[in-house]
Batch of 4 targets.
Target 1
Amino acid sequence: MDMLLLVVSYLVYALFCARLAFHALVWLRAENQLKVHTRTSADSLRIIAITVIDLIFFRKLFISSKMVWLGSWVFHISFFFVFLRHLRFFLEPVPGIVTLLQPVGKIAGYLLAASAAYLFVIRTAQGIRHYVSRSNLFIIALVFVISASGVLMNGFFSPDLVVIKEFMLGILTANPADAPENIIFLVHFLAFLVLIPFLPFHVFTAPAITFESVRREENLFLVMHDKK
């Protein structure tokens, strides 16, 4: 079982890296073919500021649907802090900032499960009208399973954290270690492996794509209001 988990983990990781490289090449090619330059440094600073606001607060989503915005914003922020909390299993020694954020990450785990459930209900209710894809619902459901199993391990079925860290570091260093004998952890870990191939790549390219989108909007605005 331990060796099977190791093989599946490396297979998923290899597929993820290949997919990431492919999308990066496609994006770079599109960027090179559609170069657009802003006119002044002031314009550039404005575009950077708008991009940061869009990335942090999901400005456009807030304008289009405040109900979806609430769940989506909590979902993404919680996911970020849960990710930081989990770095303790992959790093040795654990950085001080990761240790400091452990209580925040624990609370974020509960919020992540709640926001995933909220989004699933909202997206399902609005599915016909807003053409929500099945893959989107599947990802939300997977995140709920991952976060809910994490909450269960936190509060009710605590696994041996030392064994978990040895298992995860063993995967990273190609030095296999025994998997924790905890069914909730196995569900948690396997659901995460299933999630990786389905991760939408806008999660990783969001800064570049958002910047490009804002830049094009601003340049279009400048063209439309040019004085002749």
Target 2
Amino acid sequence: MQFCRYDLRTTDAEAARAFYAEVLGLEFGTTSPEDPSPLAVWPLHEQARARGASPHWLGQIGVADVDAIVGDLVTRGSERLGPTLRAADGTAFAILRDPFGAVVAVRATTRRPHRVPVVWHQLHTRDLEGSWAAYSEVFGWAHTETIDVPDPPGGYRMFGWDGSGKSVGSMGGTASAPGVHAHWLFFFPVAGIDQRVIQVRSRGGRVGSPVVLPSGDRLVPCEDPQGAAFGLYQRA
């Protein structure tokens, strides 16, 4: 089981479409049931905004049985954020807050995306061991390696969707630091990452501190002009 869809929930959908098209060349899908795009953009619901939600990317993990997975996650301490819903094509999905505060969704599909727009999935969590236990046991993800650093405690736990040994993301206890909230951060592939950083800034976005993985791959966390966090990823 793996992430199969990425929804941008924002306060200005048209401005967001233009920003991501210019900076990353992303094309968002439509509401058509025949549209296979794994990317969508939606207005952030007023009720969510009233509860303090800010613009964000919501990742959806493809599962065979939404109700069974939701039940498992809830017994582990997750919170349902509303009932199970139906997409335009009739597909069931549900949104939850995991036991340590990160919002994630599960979607009834076992079909992998035709094209995968995200190359790295980073979980900022308050509890590395607890998060790893929940996601690995429920979704079958495999530990690939650990990057040992003094901060955050426990380093970064890198993982893959299966036992192939290929890393697709990492988890770290970074949400325990001041100013960092629990969330999934999704990185999009780019070439010429330094030029993309300039574009993000010139179009009203914000750029964080770059990170270099042991492989030499470079990651730069960013925020779009509406405040949704995303990342740039350049392979070595």
Target 3
Amino acid sequence: MPILVAIALSVRPSHCVDGFEARWLAEALRVREQVDGRVDDAEAVADARRHPGDGEARILRRAVLLGRTDNLVEAVSNWSGRARLVLVVLALLAAFGGFGAALAVVGDGGRPVNVVWVLGALLGVHLLSLLLWCVGFVMAGRDRG
């Protein structure tokens, strides 16, 4: 378990921004500029224009440069580490919960098990959630129409 936590919390240095995080920063800056107005980005735009690549690469370069000045790169990196930790914990909870549910339905092996009841117990919650999702989907469509 400590190894999984160490992997989940591994945070790259702030100067390493991969494609997903750069796009995330670009979207965060777009929303921020939409709400607060344009930021002072003359240096970032000049550096992005000197940077080789297409328009997307220049936009991402501007986002990373502005994200470093506003500490958004560190915030995204910290959030990603926490999200990985939550993902690992939820995956372990799902695995143990599924194993426990299957063990409770199948029993100890001392008595015969009705296969229909076992499948109904294991898949019933999923079927119920699917039906609730479908009802919600239909109701949302009815509200729009």
Target 4
Amino acid sequence: MPFFRVFPAHQRQRIGLRAVAWAAVLALLALSAPCAAAAKVNLEDYQVGSYEIGGDFALTNQEGKTTGLRDFRGKVVVLFFGYTLCPDVCPLTLTEMSRLNKLLGPDAGKVQPIFVTIDPGRDTSGRLKTYLANFESGIIGLTGSARDITQVAKLYRAKFAQRSVGSAAGYLIDHTAFIYLVDTKGKVRYLVPADAGADVLAEGVRQLLRG
């Protein structure tokens, strides 16, 4: 089984992060996110706690301007790594990130969703702008050099690897599928499976806004 294999949704299961040692969590980060279960969410399952993950960075947004995580101090950042040619996980995740805004109502202005590409060779600022126009909620897309993207991914323990395919796309990218909820001071507080859904994200965001 490939190390970065993306499992079909019907084969995934939710994994409570508190139920495993953090050494095992690092291994899980190399796999796609498990599927959301129907049971009520316990945010403690997704707490990062004192584990060191994340940090400041600056890349180029879809308007061609330098944008850093520090620019959003005072807001909760909803951060996801993906790419525009992703056939399934990324568009579904961005759709849920868009739905999050509707669930938050007046608090939506206190949240900034960010999409960092892991395919900088194809995902230029212009391509990100066109792609993200398909989603509501003011998602900021970020790109940069391959070196810059790799450095940011390392900060967040995000894993990705190209996989050749016999199509016009040339290759797809297997990647981790977690959403990082970053508090108003820039610290990653929750690591949520990408397909957990907007309701789970909304619960986490509200918790962070309450301090």
